[in-house]
Specification:
Blueprint lengths: L2 E7 L8 H15 L2 E7 L22 H11 L3 E7 L7 H8 L9 E8 L5 H13 L3 E10 L15 H25 L1
Parallel strand pairs: 1-2, 1-3, 3-4, 4-5
Helix pairs in contact: 1-5
Length: 188
């Protein structure tokens, strides 16, 4: 049985390109063949800012949006976060989505595909990987930055990566598969 990989679109901003980049990540992950792949869009969950009264480690969720988010995340074995860089940081939407849960992330591997200007969102990915370690997830060091992302998006909103991005994503998926298998042992 293949591991379940959930690709999470981290931006909820109107006019965002996250879904366009995430579709490429999803298609590449499906072609890679080592995961059952699902695309998750944070917009669909409408998560308010930390509105649960109990600490997320207790999993005593009172709100339907948190319960729905918890179910979506708990069933995964691994994640790829597709995130922009806003002011040298990941968007508040993805930070909140991570912090509203705790146990659901434990002992699972995560990769990051970041997009932005000249740095390709690398500062955002570093901060996100640090946050993931705080919820006991393993953010693999292979990240895929997409610098000057708009030059890779066509007029019909199709993302076409360059060769290095494609190679980088396949390398990240290879590493993610290794860590996902290893962490299943710890979760058992």
């Amino acid at each position: 049985m293949a591991s379940v990989l959930k690709i999470i679109i981290g931006s909820t901003r109107p006019g965002r390109v996250g879904p366009t980049v995430a579709e490429w990540v999803k298609n590449t992950a499906v072609s890679h063949g080592k995961f059952d792949v699902e695309l998750i869009d944070l917009v669909d969950f409408n998560l308010p800012l930390l509105d649960e009264p109990a600490h997320p480690g207790m999993q005593q969720y009172q709100h339907d949006h948190t319960k729905k988010w918890s179910q979506a995340i708990a069933s995964a074995d691994a994640y790829i976060f597709v995130t922009p860089e806003y002011d040298y940081f990941p968007p508040a939407s993805i930070v909140n989505a991570i912090q509203v849960l705790f146990r659901e992330w434990n002992y699972k591997a995560a990769g990051v595909v970041s997009y932005g200007g000249i740095s390709g969102g690398l500062r955002s990915s570093q901060m996100l990987r640090s946050l993931l370690s705080n919820v006991n997830a393993y953010g693999i060091y292979h990240v895929v930055p997409v610098p000057f992302f708009s030059q890779f998006i066509s007029d019909d909103d199709k993302f076409t990566p360059n060769e290095q991005m494609g190679d980088g994503l396949n390398l990240m998926l290879d590493e993610l598969a290794k860590w996902t298998d290893a962490l299943k042992v710890i979760r058992a």
